[in-house]
């Protein structure tokens, strides 16, 4: 168990290609799998690995995220010693850098008793045990270890992610950017393992130099100076940095093998419980290969779809390859294919919408129930 490790989650991921789902929430708070949020995966991974001191640095759109996290009880982080800490990334500076944020909250880092730290973003969807990577880091004697994934789909997935060039001894020689030129590449999962003292030195160096925007940019630019090693993760992973990747990752969850690996392989994925009543299936309802959450009322046809809590699907409605968020109502005669319906949407009777795998139709979130 990694009792000598603390976790830091930097929730400043780029949202350029997924803005339709992040206008009122960060990527970390996007619902996934019916009743989870994206942040649940990295949080659960850390807790399952024995990390119980986790600091989350979030942005100004954090209301739904903070509400979801609460005191950290679902992840056993409501503790008197250590636990869950949430820091708001608001700043009076014209340009916000995670170097500045960490420097402003250095007291939290100094007071933490752990010797090592794992820094991660939230948008790498996977189920992993950090213990093996941490053991490798300590035995290698490197200053920093970056967790990465070998992929054969670099031309269509992981676009704009960082690529690692690694020698036979697992030393990182340089870092580039995936522009879709090759299928076989090494993708950085933006998970960094180092001593806490190393992190402090990097933050100080970043403040002195002044032109670096993030911890990772300093590491990537000085991989040879810092003695940076690579650790390969061999399980399923999806980078949620675009609407296409989010949709495809959600559809992958309908595959039994992927579902088992994501939610059970290296420990359970925990989330906030809302204690909903069981879903009610009426006569005439047809459901095939779908993830159905609690509290739903289902009368229509649902296939290859993900249905979140408190969704009502009326008779003669057909839902195929869709993702329906909480508190939505799909009225009689609606036909939806490759559609993402965000929260509080009421689909008018006989509405017909059809997207594609690469370009799903998105009905954006409303604060109050809104009839579309």
TrEMBL record:
<dbReference type="InterPro" id="IPR011831">
    <property type="entry name" value="ADP-Glc_PPase"/>
</dbReference>
<feature type="domain" description="Nucleotidyl transferase">
    <location>
        <begin position="20"/>
        <end position="151"/>
    </location>
</feature>
<dbReference type="Pfam" id="PF24894">
    <property type="entry name" value="Hexapep_GlmU"/>
</dbReference>
<keyword id="KW-0808">Transferase</keyword>
<protein>
    <submittedName>
        <fullName>Glucose-1-phosphate adenylyltransferase subunit GlgD</fullName>
        <ecNumber>2.7.7.27</ecNumber>
    </submittedName>
</protein>
<feature type="domain" description="Glucose-1-phosphate adenylyltransferase/Bifunctional protein GlmU-like C-terminal hexapeptide">
    <location>
        <begin position="285"/>
        <end position="352"/>
    </location>
</feature>
<dbReference type="InterPro" id="IPR011832">
    <property type="entry name" value="GlgDAde_trans"/>
</dbReference>
<comment type="similarity">
    <text>Belongs to the bacterial/plant glucose-1-phosphate adenylyltransferase family.</text>
</comment>
<dbReference type="Pfam" id="PF00483">
    <property type="entry name" value="NTP_transferase"/>
</dbReference>
<dbReference type="InterPro" id="IPR005835">
    <property type="entry name" value="NTP_transferase_dom"/>
</dbReference>
<keyword id="KW-0548">Nucleotidyltransferase</keyword>
<dbReference type="GO" id="GO:0008878">
    <property type="term" value="F:glucose-1-phosphate adenylyltransferase activity"/>
</dbReference>
<dbReference type="InterPro" id="IPR056818">
    <property type="entry name" value="GlmU/GlgC-like_hexapep"/>
</dbReference>
